[in-house]
Specification:
The chain is of the alpha+beta class. 49% of the residues lie in helices and 11% in strands. It is built from 18 helices and 11 strands. The radius of gyration is 22 Å and the shape is globular. The protein starts with a strand and ends in an 11-residue tail after the last helix. This is HD domain-containing protein.
Length: 422
């Protein structure tokens, strides 16, 4: 099957990939936007998890081609398994998944919980079994398996600099309308060393400044999109409202995690809007109208000491019940409904891509090792990335001024937000 993709051009799926892509459990990804609520800021960001999954499959094959060019023998059967695993890497995603799993910690991460094992027990597992791919694809996706794939093959599907990253950086930038990209030269830097997928920063005993520039360019693009798109405060506010709506519906028995595998972005919001639970209904309907809560209180790494950030993450990110008590206390002091106050405290930010294995004149090491020629630039990017952490209290517009004072008193730090910046 030949597909025309706006990012990679023509993508040809082999028969096994076509059969997997046509399964209902994969086709449902067409209804889940890749960037969640980012379209409220970037109207073109309507691309889906399905689009991305096909793109990741294409990039995985590009990496395999690059490895063959570097001298690695890769069988066609293993390449097929890698392509299918890449196509399935997001199959367990639910609507607004990163927001629900990573930001508000309502459910296990899509790649760490039991969803994939459940899916392998159904039509997906049976189809993979018939294709002779069940065990190896399961292993590539992290399931216990009797068949082992090389570690470098798993790195293509879920490593630091992997097919997932190299698709979504281009795709997210394009559909957000941002003129940022990386060069295809990056593919010529891939190699296998010690059973790992590595980026070659040296060749013939000499450092390769061009390869170092390419990998730094990729990480700069990752930072740029995080700053401009992934952590944009409007996207964060809308996602936080949806998350609290889901949390409220779950607490009242109107929704369970397994329901989310049957829903897409629109049907989830519709179900929340009709669930009969006042707080969940109000938040879902407001989000659908883009009638969003405003930033009443904001602090960042500039004003919150590292030890305080760690404490807050433990209290208000890792513990939904503690966060809910704080929201209830805010609501009481501000005279608001519980649903009108949303506390957003993300995990501490880190750039995992900076830990990618690279080959230097000293051998295989991590990109952010101090002895690496790129350490200074990588370290600076990591510091900037960590500084993107923000703690928010979202409230209705009329309560913004009071919320800043109440939160400053309760949390012991003044808001960094100016009075006209909500």
């Amino acid at each position: 099957m030949l597909l025309r993709d706006p990012i990679h051009g023509d993508i040809e799926l082999n028969p096994a990939e076509v059969e997997i892509a046509d399964l209902g459990i994969v086709q449902r990804l067409r209804g889940i936007k890749q960037l969640g609520t980012a379209h409220l800021v970037y109207p073109g960001a309507l691309h889906t998890r399905f689009d991305h999954s096909v793109g990741v499959c294409a990039v995985a094959h590009e990496i395999v081609d690059a490895l063959r060019d570097s001298g690695l023998h890769v069988t066609r059967d293993l390449e097929t398994a890698i392509g299918v695993a890449a196509l399935l890497h997001d199959v367990t995603h639910v609507p607004f998944g990163h927001t629900l799993e990573d930001e508000r910690r309502l459910f296990d991460r899509h790649d760490e919980g039991s969803r994939l094992a459940q899916m392998f027990s159904g039509e997906l597992g049976l189809t993979l079994e018939r294709l002779g791919l069940r065990d190896i694809v399961g292993h590539l996706l992290g399931l216990p398996s009797n068949e082992r794939a090389p570690r470098w093959a798993r790195d293509i599907v879920s490593g630091c600099i992997d097919a997932d990253l190299l698709d979504y950086l281009r795709r997210d930038s394009y559909f957000a309308g941002l003129s940022q990209n990386y060069d295809d030269r990056i593919f010529r830097c891939f190699a296998e060393r010690d059973d790992r997928l590595v980026i070659r920063l040296a060749r013939h005993g000499m450092d390769r400044p061009d390869a170092r520039s390419e990998i730094i360019g990729v990480l700069r693009l990752r930072y740029y999109l995080t700053e401009r798109v992934y952590y944009h405060h409007t996207k964060v506010a809308a996602g936080a409202m949806i998350s609290k709506a889901v949390e409220t519906a779950v607490a009242h028995g109107a929704l369970v995690e397994s329901d989310l595998l049957e829903l897409n972005d629109w049907t989830l919001l519709d179900r929340l809007g009709r669930c009969g639970i006042a707080g969940a209904t109000a938040l879902a309907r407001r989000t659908s109208r883009r009638d969003l809560l405003k930033r009443g209180y904001v602090v960042s790494g500039r004003s919150v000491p590292a030890d305080r950030r760690t404490e807050w993450v433990a209290l208000y990110h890792s513990s939904p019940s503690t966060r809910a008590r704080l929201e209830a206390e805010f609501a009481g002091q501000l005279g608001l409904d519980f649903a009108d106050v949303v506390v957003y405290c993300p995990a501490l930010t880190m750039m995992k891509e900076a830990t990618a294995p690279v080959e230097t004149i000293r051998g295989v090491e991590l990109l952010n090792d101090r002895g690496n020629e790129a350490f200074g630039e990588i370290g600076a990017l990591q510091d900037r990335y960590a500084d993107l952490w923000r703690f928010y209290v979202f409230v209705p517009e009329q309560a913004v001024v009071r919320a800043a004072a109440v939160a400053a008193d309760m949390l012991g730090l003044p808001s960094e937000l100016g009075p006209k910046s909500a």
